[in-house]
Design a protein that fits this description.
The chain is an alpha+beta fold. It has 15 helices and 15 strands. A hairpin with a 6-residue loop joins strand 3 and strand 4. The longest helix has 66 residues. The chain is elongated and about 175 Å long.
């Protein structure tokens, strides 16, 4: 990418990236703060409104309890225990109680119907005359009241009008505490509708009430009253509502009709109702979204300004650079008369001065280079002739080296050289063939201990020592080594110390030869000369030499010795009867026996072909 494009792009990126990062961080922080505050608001609202609802229900419960203590209610129910005929429904006492309930209802606008139920579930008196004789024995509120409990139902359809209602039932007891009937207030569902309508929470927020069965008691949308809720998270709370012993409040999120929402809810254990306050997540986050749009707009404006500034800044830098490039292109083609024109005294001004000075120096040096070129041209022919001679010498040297290598490869010797100062050890290719060890030896002393048999190391070191002391013109030793494969070989090692011009020892040079065949041949000759070929015992010649040696020792030390002869009788008969092979085996066996029983310091031998001594 060219500087003309890269420079504005870098300025734009340096200004825009921090802006967008800061915008994103501000939005996230603001959004999180708003959501936390919004969730806390609906939680606190659900708590406050649930307390209000509890007070309303408690007031209605007190009203029902007081009414159940009314003497006229007790009197009618006690008479009902005596008179179970249908004529009782139209009796003056029952009619009077119904009129009294009707007058009481007129003072309580939230009550749909107040009625008294006998033990069989029949309504015997009611503020609504059409409800008399209707049986409510299947209603849960009636069953709970007969058990002696004050009970608040969920939403019910009235058996009289079919309208939605909530029943609050209390047991009616006689003077002995026995339940003789039930007093019930039926409260309009609209009463709770008015309650939740007064709960305001923004533009999308609303509240609703759910009973223990998951049925909606009150909702801003009247069509949903009495239906089962579709909020799965709230359903899980209602399923466990029996586990709550005190008011429990919490906040959660859910999705309804593809809209993300937050809800704060409070469970009222005594009523087994749940008050829910909800609001759309978008409404809570709306200020943060607006703030983000404003920040993006400001960032976009700043970005446009940055683009304009970067273009002008880039132009003020790039144009002089292009001018310099044009001048340099001319200089590259040989035109040293063009100079870089730039008026400012900034960094580019310093570059202008340096470049122009360089061009002037190059121009002045051009003539000097021309004269030098002529001199170089004059000497070129001389250098060429010298080069040809060097090539010829190199070829002759290569031929000589090839002949030397062929001579080394054809011989049975390996050349070695040890540099005393550096410790480098050089050997020719034949070294590996003779010793089995690679040519790279890092420590010569370790190599000698590894390869040279212990018996011959001292011989080697003594020979080198005599040579160092100038007792011998060179050192030469026959030593026995162990190859890398574990084989034994005889080696003839010859070497000499090399001195520098100051008389200092600088290196050892020498050769080694494989003399294993020679040594083996010598050993065979010695074996044939001094030992019997059949029994392996020393022969007569060896015996005479050893006997002369012992006689001299005895004479010197004034000692005596002895010679013992053994003769094999009838040995010829063995050869004649059993054959010479049997005779040879007999001689070898007797020789082995002598070797086993005679001390090493004694000498025993085979004297001649037909006897052994």
């Amino acid at each position: 990418m060219r500087i003309k494009t890269r420079l504005p792009l870098m300025i734009i990126l340096l200004s825009s990236i921090p802006l967008f990062v800061v915008s994103f961080l501000i939005y996230n922080y603001t959004s999180k703060t708003l959501i936390d505050n919004g969730k806390n608001n609906i939680l606190q609202m659900s708590k406050a409104e649930s307390n209000t609802l509890i007070e309303i229900i408690n007031g209605q419960e007190r009203e029902v309890e007081l009414s159940s203590e009314n003497l006229s209610v007790k009197s009618v129910l006690e008479n009902r225990l005596i008179n179970r005929d249908d004529s009782f429904f139209n009796s003056p006492q029952a009619t009077s109680l119904s009129n009294g309930l009707k007058q009481r209802k007129a003072n309580l606008s939230e009550i749909q119907n107040s009625f008294v139920v006998d033990l069989q579930g029949n309504i015997i008196a009611s503020s609504d005359g059409s409800a008399v004789k209707i049986n409510v024995g299947d209603r849960q509120y009636f069953k709970e009241a007969l058990k002696g409990n004050l009970y608040v139902s969920g939403t019910l359809h009235s058996k009289v009008s079919g309208d939605l209602m909530v029943a609050i039932a209390a047991p009616v007891r006689d003077n002995e505490g026995n339940v003789i009937g039930t007093y019930v207030n039926g409260i309009y569902a609209d009463y709770f509708e008015n309650f939740i309508h007064n709960i305001k929470n923004g533009e999308t927020g609303y509240a609703y009430i759910v009973d223990s069965e998951g049925s909606i008691v009150a909702h801003p949308d009247e069509k949903r009253v009495g239906r089962i809720i579709q909020n799965l998270k709230l359903s899980n709370v209602i399923e466990n509502i029996k586990d709550y012993t005190k008011t429990y409040s919490a906040v959660d999120s859910y999705t309804y009709n593809k809209v993300d929402k937050f809800m704060g809810y409070s469970v009222i254990p005594d009523l087994k109702w749940t008050l829910v306050v909800t609001i759309n997540a978008d409404e809570i986050d709306a200020p943060a979204a607006l703030e983000l749009k404003m920040i993006i707009a400001i960032a976009g404006f700043i970005l446009v300004i940055s683009v304009i500034i970067s273009i002008f800044a880039s132009k003020s830098i790039i144009d002089p650079i292009y001018s310099l490039i044009n001048v340099m292109n001319k200089a590259e083609k040989g035109d040293l008369s063009s100079l870089f024109e730039y008026k400012a005294n900034d960094e580019l001004g310093v570059l202008r001065d340096n470049y122009n000075n360089m061009i002037k120096r190059l121009s002045s040096s051009y003539e000097e280079l021309s004269s030098v070129y002529e001199e170089l041209s004059a000497t070129e022919e001389e250098l060429r002739s010298q080069y040809d001679e060097l090539i010829k010498n190199k070829e002759e040297l290569q031929i000589s080296q090839d002949r030397y290598k062929q001579a080394l490869d054809g011989s049975n010797d390996a050349i070695w050289e040890f540099d005393i100062k550096t410790g480098d050890f050089f050997v020719s290719d034949k070294w590996y063939e003779i010793t089995g060890y690679i040519s790279k030896v890092e420590n010569v002393s370790k190599f000698i201990r590894k390869a040279v048999m212990p018996k011959y190391r001292k011989i080697l070191y003594n020979a080198i020592k005599k040579h160092i002391e100038l007792k011998t013109p060179w050192f030469e030793t026959e030593i026995k080594i162990v190859t890398s494969k574990g084989e034994s070989k005889w080696i003839l090692n010859k070497g000499k110390l090399i001195k520098d011009s100051y008389g200092n020892f600088i290196k050892y040079s020498g050769i080694i030869s494989d003399i294993t065949l020679k040594k083996n041949s010598e050993e065979k000759i010695r074996q044939l000369a001094y030992y019997d070929s059949l029994t392996g015992l020393p022969n007569r010649l060896t015996f005479i030499k050893e006997l002369d040696k012992e006689i001299k020792i005895c004479e010197k030390n004034n000692r005596t010795g002895a010679v013992l002869f053994f003769d094999l009788d009838d040995f010829k008969r063995v050869n004649d009867s059993l054959g010479h092979d049997a005779g040879d085996r007999l001689l070898k066996t007797i020789g082995d026996k002598f070797s086993d029983i005679i001390a090493v310091s004694y000498t025993h031998l085979r004297a001649h072909e037909t006897s052994a001594h």
